[in-house]
Design brief:
By secondary structure, the protein is an alpha/beta fold. The chain has helices at about 15-25, 40-50, 65-70, 85-100, 125-140, 190-205, 205-210, 225-235, 255-270, 285-290, 295-310; strands at about 5-10, 30-35, 55, 75-80, 105-110, 145-150, 150, 165, 175, 185-190, 215, 220, 240. It has 11 helices and 13 strands.
Length: about 325
Amino acid sequence: MPNRTIVVVNGTGRQAASVVRYASSVGYNVRAQVRTEEENGLVVKELAGLPNVSLIRGALEDPVLVSRLFIGAELAFINTTFWGDEVAVGRSLANAAKKAGIKHYIYSSMPDHSIYGHGWPALPLWAPKYTVENYIRQLGLPATFVYTGIYNNNFTSLPYPLFCMDPQADGSFEWRAPFHADTPLPFLDAEHDVGPAVLQLFMDGPWRWNGHRIALAFELLTPPAVCAAFSRGLGRPVRYVQTRDVEVKVSIPTGYRQQLEGIALLFGHYNAPYFGPELQAPGEAVQLWQGYRGMEEYAREVFPVEERLNGRTWMDR
């Protein structure tokens, strides 16, 4: 398998960077697109220093860049983002991959809950991915679609909405969110586990996974179970408080605010299944990769390190 070339876009994202790191480590050639404005970022510098990795600098809105991106490659991992017109970018990438003869195209998709009825809303940052997925299917690209769960790495003590582990004066933590306390949610450590799972998909090939949707999450945990895992990992009390709405304490873009309001409605009021009714975790994900990092290990080994890098000092108390 090594010596084949994998194309990755938005290479500094958690999913894409995980694929780049793992693919490089086992000998694949990786062609990773990064935005020019990220040139001096820490992740760009890290990726540039990895063996077998070539960085393509520029915007995915550039038709010349996209037309050349896949030439000579066989494989692609594509995670589009909401910066710009995600559907237009997703279609452009799929067209270029089809023209270049990509043999296995793995697209990071998400569900559009509105198609199932029940009054469920479409989440504005997820539904475009589902639109792109359907376009890829119509093109006839040999493709697999991964639906990632909630990142363990989303948790932070910074006052960001939805996944703030808020340090309390007594040394404990409190997580406040609108998720139902008794409904399991799908989780994965994106940086640790996306890469090896995607590489296994490439090794298995499209003859096994063509057209398949995979719920890429390795643990199903209720919010209190998440807090229990954090408590064991940190050696501190951690409690969950279910709220009616997402609490927003910092300035956020309008589009993201709409996403958060939709999440509160979809998973709080309607208690809808995270991936929709058709996908279940973690069965296929664990078949792909058994060495995943669970929530307790993340809380013990990674969370304090990331917190320190973010200038947090609660661990000193």
